[in-house]
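From the methods appendix. Each design record in this collection lists the tokenized structure first, followed by the designed amino acid sequence. Records were kept in a plain field format so they could be parsed without special tools. The example shown here is representative of the layout used throughout.

RECORD:
FOLD TOKENS (291 positions):
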């Protein structure tokens, strides 16, 4: 198993399949990629997944850009070695037509980014008028059994802070849905950082049960048939202390931390023992960002 110098096991891999996206979210961190070059070919991704499994990585999450823009996305998922659980975070705009194929290829579940249930707000946040397609994607994912379907809602001051109750109503209406409330990480100084602490206090007051997850020690609040996970990465030493994640950028670099770009390890065109050694090197470069 891969363990870093802080004693943190690395069991999760977050793989960006492409830097391309069909939305223009005003706050997007683009998975910490600044100027990515060409995306990795299918066979290289397959080799990375094979080596990850050998190194006892247990879960892989596909991301982007928008991962569903890759025409070979189902081939990539089908190539995930047995025993390695795969999931995806997607903006959902293209999901309706492909959800069943993703499930058939072996994907276990999806996170769907959805910051507003209001059409005009959604358009303002993402730059595109595509809310209906995303909602159709949510339905299709539930029908396909890509569950639990987690809705990723980034809390944005003055834009969607007042919508948490509507989201709770929405997830209660549909079995298999849950909400993931995410603190905004401000990269572009866009002054949209909302008060997630205040909302979390309210959730805590109404919760029947609070579960602390192993990943990042995130808290999950369960209340009246709704489950809400709160993701608070900023200035959170506990989040970093329980981070078990390594990233692969769309152009083939291992990235030990979302918030740093000075410690990347190039794995383009690498395979076998050489690739395993580069994984070990990247893991040794992991340092908790907030300590
Ligand atoms: N296009 C895919 C999607 O929408 O899920 C995958 C890439 S997107 C960068 C992955 C997740 O990161 C989304 O849920 C998005 O809301 C979240 N995200 C992007 N920028 C963020 C930021 N500045 N702070 C917090 N979360 C962010």
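DESIGN:
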């Amino acid at each position: 198993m891969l363990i870093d110098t802080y004693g943190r096991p690395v069991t999760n891999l977050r793989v960006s399949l492409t830097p391309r996206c069909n939305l223009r979210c005003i706050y997007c961190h683009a998975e910490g990629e600044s100027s990515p070059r060409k995306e990795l070919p299918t066979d290289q991704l397959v080799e990375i997944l094979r080596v990850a499994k050998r190194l006892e990585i247990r879960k892989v999450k596909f991301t982007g850009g928008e991962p569903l823009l890759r025409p070979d996305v189902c081939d990539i998922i089908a190539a995930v070695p047995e025993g390695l659980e795969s999931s995806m975070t997607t903006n959902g705009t293209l999901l309706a037509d492909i959800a069943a194929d993703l499930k058939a290829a072996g994907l276990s579940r999806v996170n769907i980014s959805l910051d507003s249930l209001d059409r005009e707000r959604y358009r303002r946040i993402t730059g595109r008028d595509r809310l209906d397609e995303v909602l159709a994607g949510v339905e299709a994912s539930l029908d396909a059994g890509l569950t639990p379907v987690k809705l990723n809602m980034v809390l944005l001051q003055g834009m969607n802070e007042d919508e948490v109750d509507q989201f709770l109503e929405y997830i209660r209406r549909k079995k298999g849905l849950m909400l993931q409330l995410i603190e905004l990480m401000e990269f572009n100084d866009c002054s949209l950082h909302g008060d997630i602490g205040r909302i979390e206090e309210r959730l805590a007051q109404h919760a029947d049960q609070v579960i602390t997850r192993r990943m990042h020690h995130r808290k999950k609040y369960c209340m009246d048939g709704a489950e809400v996970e709160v993701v608070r990465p900023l200035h959170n030493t506990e989040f970093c202390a329980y981070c078990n994640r390594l990233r692969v950028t769309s152009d083939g670099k291992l990235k030990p931390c979302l918030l740093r770009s000075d410690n990347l390890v190039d794995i383009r065109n690498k395979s076998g023992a050489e690739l395993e050694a580069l994984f070990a090197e990247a893991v040794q470069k992991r340092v908790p960002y907030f300590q």
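APPENDIX NOTE: The pocket of S-adenosylmethionine is lined by residues 21, 27-31, 63-64, 66, 89-91, 113, 152, 154, 182, 184-185, 187 (CB under 6 Å).
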